[in-house]
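Hi V.,

Quick status before I head out on leave. The structure for the redesign project is tokenized and pasted below; the design run finished overnight.
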């Protein structure tokens, strides 16, 4: 290390590290919040998807039943 390096380190001091740590801590908290939001959105979309899948199955079964009834009403088997 040379004298210039030591002066540069002394100018920054421990406050620079504390400021950096504080900034990174805030960034971590922000990212954790965004991850929680994303996780909630994923769970909501998964529930919606499951509900829509059940609805499609129900409508498909109704459609099959209706086609069967229409076939019998027209004298077909």
């Amino acid at each position: 290390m040379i004298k210039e390096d030591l002066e540069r380190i002394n100018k920054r001091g421990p406050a620079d590290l504390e400021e950096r740590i504080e900034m990174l801590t805030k960034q971590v908290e922000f990212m954790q919040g965004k991850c929680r939001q994303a996780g909630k959105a994923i769970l909501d979309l998964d529930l919606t998807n499951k509900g829509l899948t059940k609805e499609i199955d129900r409508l498909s079964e109704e459609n099959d039943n209706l086609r069967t009834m229409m076939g019998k009403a027209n004298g077909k088997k």
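Above is the designed sequence. The helical segments are 3-73.

G. will cover questions while I'm gone.

Best,
W.
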